[in-house]
Amino acid sequence: MDRTALADFLRSRRAKLRPEDVGLSTGPRRRVEGLRRDEVAAVTGMSTDYYVRLEQARGPQPSEQMLAALARGLRLSTDERDYLFRMAGHSAPARTPLDTHVSPALLRVLDRLEGTPALILSSLGETLAQNRFGAALLGDHSRLTGFARSSVYRWFTDPHERDIYPAEDQDRQSRAQVSSLRVAYGAAGPHSRAAALLAELQRISPEFVEVWERHDVAARFSDHKTLLHPEVGAIELDCQALFTEDQSQTLLTLTAAPRSDAAQKLELLAVLGQQSFAPQG
Three-state SS across 135-197? Predict the structure, then answer.
């Protein structure tokens, strides 16, 4: 681990960013250029003291998970992320079609979508980043680990995952989940995370096997869908997807027609956030 090089690099990347670049407000009395150390800590989910020690070249070796959070929070390119890992004494992550390092370009768009539910997904349906509105509408899946990170896995193993879709739409959603996995498997190959996920689902879910044998292949998102939210009920939303050039990550936004019933429900949801007022039983 090269602590001095790591510290210099972190300081230089922090100095190049502004609060609005990472979805933070500037504030009325700001004098410092670049992000403050506490702001970097906030967007990466670490303590300010821990981050300060890294910049002062006296911190412990960061874990790969911590480095991934730093790369995402500092909006590093893939080359910059790899350098960060190497200076911290780790091998750079393998570059594959299933790389979960979030595209900085998609993150810049996500940061500017405060009033719209939005999230960034991997080709395995993993939530790589989401705004607060997206978490309020769809739930926060960004902290999940293992196979459960994938929406495909959750769809076929957790019955509650289907609660957000009307019963009449669930078969279509099953086919969409499986066909997206087939696209990911085709891109990544038989020795990938997609292959491991496929093998696990084939082992535990007869329903998945049945749908998989249809050989549907598609990575498209439906343009219009109805979602069921426990606090505001059914919401009809238009779904738009923005893909990275290699199609490995997707920025998904969900909007309602102006002045519609759904638009009013989204406004209410923006106030409620992730609070739950449903009876506990």
Answer: HHHHCCCCCCCHHHHEHHHHHHHCHHHHHHCCHHHHHHHHHHHHHHHHHHHHHHCCCCHHHHH
Q: How confident is the model at residue 55 (pLDDT cuts 50, 70, 90)?
A: confident
CATH class held by domain 104-272: alpha beta
Residue extent(s) of CATH 3.30.450.180 domains in the chain? 104-272
| Two tokens, residue 46 | 């670490």
Q: What tokens does 200 get? A: 């696990």
Contacts of 205 (CB under 8 A, 6+ apart): 156, 157
Q: Using CA atoms, how far apart are residues 22 and 35, in angstroms rounded to an integer?
A: 9
Six token digits for residue 241: 């997807």
Q: Mean per-residue pLDDT for 31-42?
A: 82
What average pLDDT does range 174-179 have in this prediction? 91
